[in-house]
Amino acid sequence: MFYLCTPIFIPNLVEKETIYILAIESSCDDTSAAVLCNDNVISNVVATQKIHEEYGGVVPELASRAHQQNILPVVHQALLKANIDKKQLSTIAFTRGPGLMGSLLVGTSFAKSVALGLEIPLIEVNHMQAHILAHFINEENSPKPEFPFLAMTISGGHTQIVRVNNHFNFEILGETLDDAVGEAFDKSGKILGLPYPGGPMVDKYAQLGDPKKFPFPKPKVGNLNFSFSGLKTSILYFIQRETQKNPTFVAENLNDICASIQYTIINILMDKLIAAVKQTGIKRVAIGGGVSANSGIRAALKNAEKNYGWSTYIPKFEYCTDNAAMIGIVGYYKYKSQRFASHDVTAKARYII
User: Fold this and answer.
1) What are the φ and ψ backbone dihedral angles of 87, each rounded to 5 degrees?
2) In the chain, at which end, N or C, are there fewer CB atoms within 10 A of the end residue's CB?
3) Level-2 CATH architecture, domain 2-137+320-336
4) pTM score, two decimals?
5) How many angstroms separate the CA atoms of 75 and 35, rounded?
6) Does 149-315 carry CATH code 3.30.420.40?
7) Is residue 228 within 8 Å of 180, Cβ to Cβ?
8) What burial class does residue 55 get, using C-beta atoms within 10 Å of its C-beta: 0-12 exposed, 13-18 middle, 19+ buried?
9) Is the pLDDT confidence value at 82 over 80?
10) In this model, does residue 8 exceed pLDDT 50?
11) Are 2-137+320-336 and 149-315 in the same CATH fold?
């Protein structure tokens, strides 16, 4: 089990009934700022960096430069949309890690500067914790999971199954031993010649294809851990072999190939999730992270709810990909429990939940 941060107590702050939080997210290639009033999101602005498309993946140096350009206008826009003055802010919450170090440094430095200038507390947030606690954003017709629950965090950099005991107490039950599921989707898209990011494109074409047309092997990994490197290799060899026979194979079978890849990946994820429920006896299951926007995964989770009697929790699309609102909700709960960071806090590229 891991406990996040040592609280720094500041007397009387939590007596305020209205808490305004400015949240900043800059872990990868999206610059985002949000303003929350308690657990309600009143603005959530995201600037996406298009420059990485021509390289087929995120270039860290270019990402950090773009964050430097974007962060001030994004924060300004978030405050404008929220219709509040910066002097009304109660705290600044920011992503400390995990992520790209250069990108994290931009957000960390900016947050520390603003907090110092306004003389308000600073709150550091674990990016993966934020994906999980995004379910606690106050949204109409969006129930919050009761503790304990299982969370499967799936993104370009992470694949984990986590037991969530309370807002700050997490236990990793299983994780990827090599590549993350988002990377498997994106690399598969690249093999097929699809534009970056490939994951959403695979999902798009998969909805039109036969998921059982081309079977791919599932890795044999013990316990609740994952592995996707072997699957990526098998997809690469399959495409190379078939295109040698027929140069137009991919174009002629794109929908079925994508459907078969997605079907295999979803089965890998669901097999482990079913095993985790059996192992723990916990039937409250949530997903989070960028890959949780995938239509097939969302459908599979809903089917499991019907077939196994689970209670499932799926975030709104805007809270799946990297966004500052999810950073803000962690900031809200940390503010209430006075878990503030000191101003010598530094970014952490590797930051365990």
Assistant:
1) -70, -15
2) N
3) 2-Layer Sandwich (3.30)
4) 0.91
5) 9
6) yes
7) yes
8) exposed
9) yes
10) no
11) yes
